[in-house]
Design brief:
about 120 residues, 2 domains, about 60% helix
């Protein structure tokens, strides 16, 4: 898909510049005294708008490339399995499910630390 965006961007740029030259020449030739000024403005405006279209399509292609890289990285990640029943060192687990530091003897629910 990104290659299609890049190719389309090149087509927009090339055809836009060619069209700008044709329009500038045709309009500039038909208007007598200030034709070259109007033709120049049309040429610059057409080339600029073609370049903006080209840049937008190139940016879209870059976004699609980066998105593919991100999706590939996400699919390669291994999910970490967390053992919820494992009590970290230095803590004890109350029967209510709360984790308490080892230096406390009573849980916040009021139950005492079990004797080991």
């Amino acid at each position: 898909m990104s290659n299609k965006c890049r190719n389309l961007g090149l087509i927009v740029l090339i055809l836009g510049i060619i069209g700008s030259f044709i329009m500038a020449y045709t309009i500039g030739k038909n208007i007598s005294e200030i034709g070259w000024i109007i033709g120049g403005v049309i040429l610059i405006g057409g080339c600029f708008s073609s370049y903006v279209g080209f840049i937008r399509l190139e940016a879209t292609a870059e976004i699609l490339d980066n998105q593919d890289i991100i999706f590939q990285a996400i699919s390669n990640l291994e999910e970490e399995v967390v053992d919820v029943d494992k009590v970290p060192q230095g803590y004890w687990k109350c029967s209510c499910g709360n984790l308490n530091p080892a230096n406390t003897g009573t849980c916040s629910c009021g139950k005492r630390k079990p004797a080991l």
